Amino acid sequence: MSTVTDTHHASGSRTPAKPAKAKREGAFFSGFSHLFLAAWALLVLYPLSWVVISAFKSDSAILKNPLSLIPDGLHFDNFSRAWTNGKFASLFFNTIVVLGGGVTLTMLLGSMAAYVLARYKFPGNRLIYYTFLVGLTVPIYVAAIPLFKLTDQVGKVFPPLGLNSHAMLILVYVGWSLSFTVFFMHSFFNTLPNSVAEAAMVDGASHTRLFFQVMLPMAKPGLVSIAIFNIIGQWNQWYLPVLLMNPADFAAEKHQVLAQGMLDLAVNQGYKSDWSGMFAGLTMAMVPVLVVYIAFQRQVQAGLTGGISK
Fold first, then answer.
1. Which CATH architecture has domain 77-306?
2. Would you say the pTM of this structure is higher than 0.70?
3. Which family does this protein fall into (predicted)?
4. Fewer CB atoms inside 10 A, N or C side of the chain?
């Protein structure tokens, strides 16, 4: 009896301790995660705020106290000077042309390839899919010399696809972005219900109509997400334009994109000391991609979580 009583007594004293321990552990991990997120937010927001606020400072204020987040005034002339001296109108035009063509072709070809690989079984299906995956592992720097020489040789035969050409850079961007697009969209098309496709085929839909009018709209969350990723990736791409968007003839006009212009603006600071103009240029270059991401952040999150839940 005494043993049973002791056991009940012991178990009765331990039972309330479990929720208390779990509560302490939950509070610890919650506090740790909040501390980590706060540190991460600081690492992201401080450089961003520093660039934007420095764009409104004078050169003397930037040099006197470079890390300060308090401007000495609002010098809007920095933006007009950067826009004019940095030739931002031409840079934005070239970037939008290349980005429009690059993202459109990447989305079209990538979604078509992913759909066929995900929904149709044929010999070599896995080989083609894994070939796309291998493309994710190859750094662009490895292909720099062959890519430059190939572009130079093609340009001698067909100038519209040679160096310093918008069409050439669009095709290079498509090749660079296609692997990730196929990988991302393959999982979406692979999880779409077969019953919908079978019903459409019974109703007489062709394979082309089935893809464009039935399956593609059903994969809209994934399309929006990968489109945003491609826009951000191609907008921030600087190595390929610096490598390929230079004319063979130095006297010819350069069709520079925004990343090249920003790089030139930063390098020239060593001789001109127009720091406020450089920060204003950086701010103008950041704004479009930030607006796109903020405007479509819900769709990006829905696309990512939709792909995971399926």
1. Orthogonal Bundle (1.10)
2. yes
3. Belongs to the binding-protein-dependent transport system permease family.
4. N
